[in-house]
Every structure is written in structure tokens, then in C-alpha cells.
Amino acid sequence: MHVICSFAAILLSVSSICSTIADVESGAINGLSSKHSLTHQEFSKILLRSIDDEITLQHFTVNYSGRNLEGTDTGRDEIWNGVLQHGWDTIEYSTNGRLLRSENASTYFSPFDSSSLSNKHPFLLCSSYPVPSGYLRLQRILLAFNTTIDMSQTVYNAEESSCFIIVSSSHVLERAFELSQQHMGNEVSDLLKNVTFGPLVDVLKLAAGTPSMILNDEDWQEPVLNMYSSLRNGKDRISPKPGAQRKWKRSLMIDLIPGSHLALKLVNGSVHSIARDVVDFVEAMANASKTAQDANREHSNLRSLGVGTSSNGIMSLRQAFSLTSATSSPGKTTKMILRSNDDTNVWSNALIGGFESRHGCQNMFDLIEIRPRGSLDDSAPVIGFELLLNAPEVTDDKRRHVADSSALNKQCALSLIMGLSVHPMVQTVEVSPKIELAMAEGASNPQWITQSSRVNSRPFFDKGLDGRGQIVAVADGGLDRDNCYFRDVNEDASMESIFGSSWNLTRRKIVNYDDSFADRKEIPMGHGTHVSGIVAGRKSFNGVDEATGYADGVAPGSKIAFFDMEIEDGGIQDPGVSRLFSSFYNSGKGAKIMNASWGRGYNGVYSAFCRDYDSMLSTKYSDVLLVVSAGNTGVGGHASSIQNPADCKNSLGVGASLSYGNDIRSREKGIEYLADYSSRGPTFDGRMKPDIVAPGHFILAPNADPSRFGECDGSAQPDVKSSLSAGKGARYVSGTSMSSPVVAGSASIVRQYFEEGWCTEDWCCGAKGCGTSINPSGSLLKAILLNGAQPLHGGVQGVPDGIVFQDDPIYEYDNIQGAGRVNLLNSLPLTGENNIQMMIVNDKGIIDGAKDEYNFQVDLSNGCNSEVQVTLVWYDPPGAVGCTNCVMNDLDLYMENIDGSEILYPNGLFQRDKKNTVERIRTQVSEGLQFRVVVHARNFATSFQRYSLAVSGCLAEADDNNSRSTSSSSENNPGTQVQSARSASNDEELLIHYTSHDCEFSQLFELEITTGEAGSTTKWDLLGSSPDNTSTVIAYGPKSSSFENNAKYYFSVCLDPQRYIFRIREKNEGSFRVSFGGTIMVDSERMQDMDTNVTFRFKVNANGHEYIKRAGQVRDLDGESI
Fold it and tell me: Any signal peptide, and if so, which residues (predicted)?
């Protein structure tokens, strides 16, 4: 019997939640079929989760009505459906008021029982409803299920379908489907026909490979402990190794479900308080598990069924977790999901050696630290927390039980993960890999390589562009502050003015040293000193007078804000994304570029850390550029070896190329070759990484020597062929750790260029002061660097052995070099040095479905290169952990001749790019060519997105005397956009969009038009009506007469509070439907008397309420005259 949970039955808060196929096929449950149930095949295309490992490895058997279905497709389906059924039973259990809770959890259940989350549960819901974007699908889902955008999260967004986490109550969902059955053929009914869904149950919250990340981590217990295993009892036994426990730390990343912030606001709670209560909840469950197991030791038959509660009624974790529960629901024994071999049962063994053991993992709970992620005051959408697992003070073998009950016991850590996953407000749980430094082993060569690629040519330095006036943040393991490349006058006297949260902008180099997380110490040959020097080092023996040094940085005029991440030699630790950004940003007065020469290995899978970084950059810190080393795990052509956070959507991931002259060894081929260790893409969801490359192999950098004061480079020209050392204060180092600060320094020069007025608001004029000072967004800096990058023409070289693995040219966009190597002279106009012209768009807003167009004409008369380069970059909202399609707001870039004779697509493709948030076109053009660059908001998960654009080449004004966008901003209201879009092709929207940045659903006006047989459509207009009865046209259509026959077109607009008039000027073939705030104003198919010149008047109040009437009526819905 194939067990499923039918759609209607799932929504009922009654005892009979799930049914069998036979029940459904007989029409027993409101006539709904199993097609609405989310399948494992569909789920695996959306998110990468631990359930995939379980089903693929077939560790389970399913015992149902005495039949064993191990190893069959039916058996795998049974595992999936059994897990879902467990989720539905849990929903029933909690809806009936039996959600078992911690006695210590005082605040958690206050928000959960509040009006915002009372009896509500998270569902994973997918819709293929035929509308142009995920945002429009979501609006309809929210309306149908009577919930708000705050209670939802998009986890997958493609043109054909979108998937969301929706938090809603059972009775609301039930009512929606009852109404859809009663009113077949309406929009809600049509919407629900295209819906599949399932509960967000425990194992669906666990990131893929969760058990193996702990069990296969050889350093999980070393160097603190020597571990030996006893598989016979399914438990890791451990013995102590004293002296290193302070260095051991692991962490878990937890995301909370949508709507958690609303619950917290209702009770004036904090992220920390809810995290504390989640941990208390799990600890109470651990105690219940121990109590139940104590009882099971006396009644062994109960253990085989997994039945167990403590004396106070709290459910044991074995019973609560789907893959260890032996029953389909609490108190029932109808179905059992069992491991095929108990000795290899990862989850069951975790409980036996963890929560169910006599120690109950108590020491682990005692030592847990909580680090909130996001806050109620943040605009960032990610709300969650990080749990830091610490090692106990173990000094001798007699105290082995202390370590046994701590997080050093892998089974305790796994038990904790299981407990977190069953908590109803937890969305995902992820194990964090250790941070690794991207360092495999002078700076003068990287300077000219990145500025011009011409030997010893530094045209930006010649123009005074060396990063002065800029602050670059470096987060790393310590900085030797008295090295001659950082030394300041009166070093001791002024030093205290930079520690912690103190800033001293008068200092020569280091203006802030945040030691609040670590110890302000550096180790010999320390990584942080190398990295900081490559960014901005500048030689000075006395801290005042500067001189050119062999190890000068790429931006020697810049200053450093340093965040110390290491205590002594214990390895760098993660302070948390929010703390890191808050520190270096300093409320907008600090650094706007951050370098991170470290990362974690996720094999390109989108992680909770990426959610945090992408969230921060797309909201609060949009003017920050995050530059990250790609990692050193590319040896052997290892695909998807890109490390985190270089693999995030909004970071700039940097690979390592070779250097030149004294900075290469005899068999190394130089700047056109990539170092073989440089990590590669693509990411798991198919995005191109790394983004860019720069010299990283054998870079001469400042060297830390804490035993000396004022150490510096020697007097002789350094040469890596003879020695890695250059005096006591400089040294050759290698890795993407070194290429990343090269790019960060280059970005500092670009930022100086914009702030010093080398550009107007939209054109760069190439001379200091020729334009106006601009605060460039991080996405614009990223676009500029990528736009001018030049592809390497060599190959991949094994270093230091000199083997060439790929001597044929490597190509841009190949997931080896990305856009190519940094070249500033090809990126920015510089009078007297190049002849390029550049148009820029800095962090411009666009709404879902709109298009921006920019028209150009090619002018080669000044002898410039005939290549045109166009790069689009946007900071995308965060995706879901383990997403398979991580781009939420899909913008499309293409370039077309004005006469329509040719269309070019980005990133070397012959079609739209649906995967990347970076899109570039490079092409050769001819004299006089007129072309158009188009940015199309093709498919958004939200209503609004900002982007930056760089267009460079031999450009002149177009024939219409303006290279313009079809979008223009309202000067009076920066939150408002007027979007004018052509209707020149069949898949484009109808004319004009008018939007506010943050649109309430109650202000959303939507028009859906179906054309007739001849492609004709109704003529209409939307006007704003002022108190003096004058009217302003907001939108109208259609302008074009060439639409596809019998096709649907959409128009959506967010309306500000005022009066409006919608008019039908001419009713042609086809039909139309107008809705406002989810209410249908008019449906032409249901109005037989529909004639031309019909008018509807409505008003939007400041509180979002709307009033609607048809011409001829004199009162609104509340009887008020309007």
C-alpha cells in the first residue's frame, strides 16, 4: 500500500491526517489526488539536503503491513512518503496543543503561540502557475493562503516554476482548498491546480552530507583528543590529549523560519533569546531521551519500537526524529522505517552514544555559545544563529567522561543536530567546516600587471591614483604593526587610539585594529601581515617619510582597518558576518572594501554563510565590495573546488595567476598562466567562479617578525630564484591568499577614481575633477573590474615543478579564470593613457518585468580600439541553503543592433544567462554602428532589484543625442521609479511601470490581458487624480499593434496613496482582468455588458486600504463619497 498525505487531509487539524493511495483513488478525501504531494524527485531539484543521501544510499527498509520493500523504487518512495507523513503527524500533534517543550524555555513559546505564528507551520510549496515571474507567483500564493510576504521565503525561482517556504495554519490552507473546490475555474482554483507541497520536516532541514562532515572530520577530536572507535557498540570512545582544548572550536549554522522576526517583535524578544530557548528545548529533549532510554534498558522491547517519553511527558528525540521514529505518529504503531543494518545506523548510533547515553551530553550544553545572525533592526532578510561548540578542560584520563559528554564526542554533536532539526521554528541546520587560509607557501610586479599589463608601466600612479583617501578592511590572523611597511610615528603613544572600536584616521597606515575578538598578536611569518602589505603596504623607516619599497602594496596610498581573527597560533576563527561588517564599516565612515584571504570548503554548495554574506551586501552594505580568495584546492583540475565565501553570489572570488621577472622561477611561464592550485568553479548550482584572477604566485610581501622592531626588506633586489626571504621584513609568498589582496588594492584605486570626480553621474570623463564625486556601490566596483579584465592566453601551469597542464589557450568564463586578469587601464578612461569612453550606471533600481535601454553609436575616429565591453552586476537577495537554482532576481543583459540585425548574449552564450549575477559581453564593432544595451528584469522573486552597469569602448552619442535608459528616477521621491518599456516584441510587457521601492500587497495593481485571434488587445489607461480634479497619466496601453495571437500579457504597478482612475478606452478582441490588492475589480469575461469608455475609480489611503467603484456609482465600499 503506497502511503501518501493527500493535500486536503494534510491541512486538517484532525486525527486522520494521512491516507493511502486507495483512499485517494476512491475519492475519499475531498476528491483530491496525490499529484499535489511534493515528490522526492521534485524536492531534489530544488534543494540539496541530507535526505538525498539517505534515499540514495538505501540505508533504510520499510516495513508496512508485514512487507519488506528494501532496495526497490517503491521502497525509496516509501521512505520519502514516510518522512513526509511523520511531518504531517507532527503538525497534528502540535496543532492539538501537544507540542512538547522545554520547562526552561520561557520566551520561545510566547512568540510561537502569539497571533503571528499561532498554530502555523512551515510548508515547502512549489507552483508552476503560468505567470512571468516568481514574484507574481508568490503574490498569488500569499493571497490564496491568506498570509503575508513576511511569512514566506523564495527558495527556488525559475521561469517555469518557483518554490517557497510558506508559514501558514492548517485551517487557513484547508479553507483555501475548500473554496477552490466550490468555485472551479476561478484564479485561486487554477492556481492550486499547479501546486505541489510538503511539510518542512526535520531531515529536510539538514544540509547534504551532514553526518559525514562530522564523522569523517579527522580533526574533530584532534589535537585535543586521541580517538579510537568501537563500532561494536556504535560509539566513539575518546581519551584526552591535554594542552590544546582552547584552540578547538566547531560551529553549527541555524536559519529560522520566515516570520520569526514578527514573533520576536510581539514579545520584545531578541534573536539571542529565541536561540537560547531553542537550545533549552533541545536540552529538554536530550533529558527526555536519556530518561526514555533508561526505561528501555529495563524494557528492551520498547527500544526496538523507538517509543519513549519522560515522566513529564516530553517526547524523546528518537520518537520525534523521522529517521529514528519507529511509528508513523506519536502513540501509533502502524508503520516502521528502520535502518537496514543497525551497526551502520548513523542517526540511531548518534542517539545511543549521545542523548540516550548516561551522560546525556550535558557538558556540550554547558559549553555552547550562541552567536545571533541578523537582528530585528536589520533590513537583512536572514534571521538565525550560530552555535559555537567548545572543548572542555580535560587534563587527565580520569576525566574522560567530561570529554565523552562534550561536543568532542561526535555522537553528541549529531544528536544536537537532530534535536535542532525537529524544532518547529528551525528552517535549516548546517555544519560549518573549519576556516582555511588560502596560502600555498615584490609587490612592484603586481602593481604594473594589474594597472596596464605593460612592464613597469603604472599609469594610475602617474595620475595620483594610488588608493589615497581609501580604507581597505583586512580580516585575518594578526598584523605586525611595527614592520616598516606599516610603521607609524610615535608608535607606542598613538597605538591605543586604534584598538577595539577606536579609529584614528590621522595614522599613516593602520587606522583601526579591532582586537575585541582575538589578542592583537601576530605570529612569525604571519598570514595577516602578508595580506595587509599586498593591499596597502608602503615603506617608511621612521613612520613619517615614505620611500618606494620592494614590497610596496598595490594601493600604497590606502589605509588599513584590521580585524584580528586569531588567538596566538590557534588558527583563525570566524567572528560572525554581522560583527565583521559592523566593525570595519564603522557606520559608513570606515572601509568600503574588505579582503578575506581564507575560506571553507563546501564544494561549491550554497551555504548558510553565503546567505549571511549575500544578505548583508544586498541590503545594509550595498556600497561594500567583498574580495575573497578562491582557495588553493584546484590541483588536478578539481572542479567545484571554489571555497566559501568566494562562491557566494555577491562576493568577488579571485584566482591566482603567475607573476614576472624576479618573481618567477626558471620554468614558470609568467603572467599569461594560471597557477594549478587555484580553485575552480562552477558552483553546485552552475554559477561561474572564480570571477577574476590576479598575480598570486610568489608575491613579495611584508613579513612578520614579532621579535624585532621596525624590520624591513634588505638593500638588494629580491629574487625568488635565490631566496624566499628579502631581509627580515619581507618574504615571497604564494596562493590565492595573495591574489585576493592584489584585487582589493586595485578596487581601492577604482574607488578613489570615483570619489575624486573622474566621472559625471553617468559618463566617465577621465580627468580628476571633470565630473562629480560619486559614492560607488559595491556592484559598480565589481562591474568595473570585471568589465576591463583580460583573458589569460597561456594555460594552467603546475607550480613549482614547471609542468604545463594546459598549454592551449584557456578561455574566459571557463570556471578557471572567470573574466580574466585585472587590467585597470582597460577598465577606466584615463586622459592621455587610453582612448576609451565609458558609461556607468550606479546601483539603479528596476522593478520586476521592466526593461532599461541604453543607446550608443560607435566612433572610431580617435583611433581607439574597436572592442566594446558591457558588464552587468547586481547584488542578489540570499538564496536557500543547498539551493540548486540560487539566483533569486534574474536580470538579463543583451546587446542588439538598432536595426535588429544581431543580438549578442553574455558570458560566451548564445542565449540568456539564467544562472549568474555577473553578465559580460565583449565584441568587436565597426565604425558608425548604432546599438542598444538592454537590461531586462526577466524573473524576480521580489518586486525590486538594484543593479550596476559598465559600458566601455569607442562610444559617441546616439542619433537621438543621448545614450539613455528607458527608466528615469523621480527627483522628488527617490523611492519611486517610473519605468518606460517598449512593447516591440511578443514577450515584452505593456508599456509603463510605476513603482515604489517597498510595495505593500494592498497597493499592488495588476492587469492581465489576453489578445484575440488577430493579436489585438483592449486599449486602456491608468491616471492619477489630484484633489483639484486634474489627472496625470500613470500608465497606458497598448502602444504596439503587433502582439502574438491568443497570448497573455501582464502589467503590475505599486501605487502610492492618492486617487486613481482606470479607463477602458476601447474594447477589442480578447479579454482582460484587473485586480487591486488581490481584489478583482473587473473581469471582462464575466461582464456581458462590457462596452467601451467604462471607468473605475479607486483610492489608496496611507494605511493601504482601497476603495473601488464603477462609473455611475456615487459611493465607495464604505459609503463614502469620492
Answer: 1-16
